[in-house]
């Protein structure tokens, strides 16, 4: 269901405001009044959309959906690209926003953001996965395996090897998980996961 344009603009203003604040001050020092002042909205407007700062931050990651969709479409159109189901696009996005992830390290906000990224990736991949069991393994467990491995690779990359290209990291991710994901698990697979 599409949301009203005014609601969309309000949420985008709040998402953008909290990101700006997270880049300039510690996560724990940011309060709802700071966010509403930065966004230029009222307190009741904030609470009409979100229960807390943490919920706002987690829900702001819903903006990854078009990134993942575009990445999947690109991969399906150009199956030689070393990516499957949008992971390369997500890695590029995370690399572009590494200053924010770095600013959040060691805070409650870091865990919230990483959990929300994983949730969005799980939701997205799950929408393209065939339900049921695959080689005796439940679909949900396969999705947890993929997203857990992805988050491990992505966070390692951003903290240990940020100079390595997203393409190289995506290929590394696919080599790591390639043998564990059954062929045909995803609808309209353009190629196997293995690089």
Spatial shape? globular
What is the H/E string?
HHHHHHHHEEHH
- Please report the total strand number as a whole number: 2
Helix content: 55-70%
Radius of gyration: 18 Å
- Uncertain runs with pLDDT below 50, 5 residues or more? 190-195
Distance between the termini: 37 Å
Major β-sheet profile: 2 strands, antiparallel
Within the largest sheet, what's the order of strands? 1-2
What share of residues are in beta strands? under 5%
Report the total helices.
Answer: 10
Q: What's the mean pLDDT score?
A: 86
Indicate the structural class: mainly alpha
Write a structural description.
- This protein is mostly helical.
- The chain has 10 helices and 2 strands; from the N terminus they run H-H-H-H-H-H-H-H-E-E-H-H.
- A two-stranded antiparallel sheet has the order 1-2.
- The radius of gyration is 18 Å and the shape is globular.
- The N and C termini lie far apart (37 Å).
- It comes from Aquibium pacificus.
Structure, briefly:
This protein has 195 residues and is mainly α. The protein has helices spanning 5-24, 32-39, 43-49, 53-60, 65-77, 87-96, 98-104, 108-127, 139-160, 166-177, and strands at residues 133-134, 137-138. Keywords: DNA-binding.
